[in-house]
Every structure is written in C-alpha cells, then in structure tokens.
Write a structure and sequence with these properties.
6-stranded antiparallel sheet; 5-stranded antiparallel sheet; elongated; Bacteriophage T5 Orf172 DNA-binding domain-containing protein; 2 domains; 5 helices; alpha+beta; Phage_T5_Orf172_DNA-bd
Length: 219
C-alpha cells in the first residue's frame, strides 16, 4: 500500500546554522510536538519548508543520503547546512516525483507564533544584508576580537552598531579598525586602514563571517 506523508525541514534560533530534516504522516502534529518540549516562546521551532510525497519514509532516507556530509551525528537528524543546500535536495525529490508538492510554511508557523505572515520567497543564492539581526545575534552580546579575545565589543542594535572597547559607539568595521590599531600599537600612516568587521570578531568562538543565519529569523 502506497503511503502519503511529509518530509520536512525545521529550524530553531537556539541552534543557528542547523536544520532538522525528518518525516511524518501528520505535519501539524509533528510541529506541535517540537514546540511542546519546554522551548521558550521567543525561540519556537518553525517549518522551513515541507514536501507532501508518496513513500515519505524512503524520501527521508534519500534526503539524509544526499546531505550525509552535512549531518551533525548519525543518531540525530540535524544537518549543518544552508538553506540553499537543503532546498536543492528537496527540489531533486520534487523533480523525480511529479505527484509531490511543496507545502507553504506560513499557515503552519502561524499556529505556533500567532503571526500570519506571507511566505518569504528567496531565490537560490540570494542573501539579505548581513547584520546582527540576520545572524540572530542579540543586543547585549559580547563579540571577541580575533587577534585578542580579551578585547570585546558589545552589540547595540540589530544592524551593525557596537560599543567599542574605547567607549565610543562604532560600526562593527570601525570597531575592527580601532581594536586592531590598539592591539598592534599602530599610529600615524599605519593606522586607520579599512577592515571588514565580520571577519575580525567572533561570537561563541565562531567568526561572524562564518556564522550561518537562521532563515526564519523574520518570524
């Protein structure tokens, strides 16, 4: 007997950069289960996308095989992968099963968040401007300077404003210049050279340029 169910991709702000890929016969019930496990309301588990498909258990195995090099642990269904990488794997399933159909996530997520928002359409390769909000880095977070972790700046907003070690409000890039010159005792013509702030500060021991965004951050 052919069975119809869902393969899905979920994410949670508490685990930035990770996407859970699984299968279920009852998508709404499964999403509810993930949000009934003591997870704070401010960090719900949300549906990234899902595919309604026949032989959904086999489809899940195929997804896991396709993304095997991104899997965090063989005993878990979490993958350290980008939106584009996971979406491409789902697209292959859709291509090979003409009866499969994508499920729009907004109605399911609205039941969790109480916010009914339109689906976010994202082209492959498209990325919003990189900022603290996009990377799910909260206001008040401490960022460590790459050349000396004892040098820290404090996040002040969702964009790129920080309180620098010098006590001034700077953009992250300006703070990188300030901290670099301070750390290496530069002055005169050697000081003040442009620096990409996201390449010079880390959060939870990961350089900001390498932090993977949470796709559903807008929810």
């Amino acid at each position: 007997m052919t069975t119809i169910g869902y393969v899905y991709a979920l994410e949670n702000k508490s685990f930035p950069g990770y996407i859970k890929i699984g299968q279920t016969a009852h998508l709404s019930q499964r999403l509810k289960q993930f949000n009934d496990t003591g997870i704070p309301d401010s960090r719900p588990t949300l549906l990234l996308f899902a595919l309604k498909i026949t032989n959904f258990k086999r489809a899940e195995r195929l997804l896991h095989i396709a993304l095997a090099d991104k899997r965090d642990s063989l005993s878990k269904e979490y993958f350290k992968a980008s939106y584009n990488q996971v979406k491409s794997a789902f697209d292959l399933l859709l291509f090979n099963d003409p009866n499969a159909e994508f499920v729009k996530p907004n109605a399911y997520n609205a039941k969790v968040t109480g916010i009914d928002q339109p689906n976010v359409i994202r082209k492959i390769g498209q990325r919003p401007n990189r900022n603290f909000h996009y990377l799910s880095i909260p206001i008040g977070a401490k960022l460590q300077f790459k050349d000396d972790p004892k040098i820290e700046v404090t996040v002040l907003d969702g964009k790129n404003q920080v309180l620098c070690r010098c006590g001034n409000l700077h953009t992250l890039s300006r703070a990188a210049i300030c901290c670099y010159d301070y750390r290496h005792n530069l002055s005169g013509e050697q000081s003040g050279r442009d620096r990409n702030g996201f390449a010079w500060f880390s959060y939870h021991h990961i350089l900001l340029k390498d932090v993977k965004p949470v796709v559903n951050a807008e929810l």
